[in-house]
Amino acid sequence: MFNALQNYKHMKRKIITAIICMLVTLTAYPLIAQQTVVEFQYDAAGNRVLRHVIELPPENDKETQQNREVSDTTEITYTETIGQTEINIYPNPNGGRFTVVIQNPETGKKASLALYTVTGALVLKRDLLTSKTEIDIRNRENGPYMLSIAIDGKRKTWKVIKQ
Predict the structure, then answer these.
(1) 36-162 is classed in which CATH architecture?
(2) In the chain, how many H helices and how many E strands?
(3) Could you give the CA distance from residue 101 to residue 146 in angstroms, rounded to a whole number?
(4) DSSP assignments along 46-102, one per residue
(5) pTM for this prediction
């Protein structure tokens, strides 16, 4: 009888411990699920000169949802600003071709973009000389890429997905 009571208490402790572990895991999941991406910059010789960690907002973030507009063709357009300049990136996800539009570019401001793989490898880098720039990465692997746009020293980074 005494042995059965000890086994019961021991089993009860195991069950309570398992429930507490599950609750802690479920509580911490939103923090764990937040994506982070590392951006690297390289000099002309190919040496890494900067490592920048970017935290991507979760998909259910209100600000992220407000910055997306779903059109009739279900393409998603990201609209954000760098300083006073509005930037549109569409479609995203894409099949390897997407467009970057800089609305009302300020004259005399230097603008450039760089596209990286999620591992930090530079895919392409170019100066933005016009307000509309077409990017073609159809010859690249499917998956996420990091698009970094700099205007007059201010930089923002977006996740672009090639399907």
Answers:
(1) Sandwich (2.60)
(2) 2, 11
(3) 17
(4) S-EEEEEEEEPPPTT-HHHHHTEEE-TT--EEEEEEETTEEEEEESSSBSSEEEEEE
(5) 0.53
Provide the CB-side half-sphere exposure for 123 (13 A, CA): 24
Question: Does a cis peptide bond (omega within 30 degrees of 0) precede residue 105?
Answer: no
Tell which residue, 28, 40, 52, has the closest CA to residue 115.
40
- The list of the chain residues with pLDDT below 50 reads 64-74
Query: Where exactly are the structural domains of the chain?
Result: 1-33, 36-162
pLDDT tens digits for range 31-55: 555 566 667 777 776 676 666 666 6
Token pair belonging to 37:
């991406």
Query: What's the CA gap between 57 and 126, in Å, rounded?
Result: 26
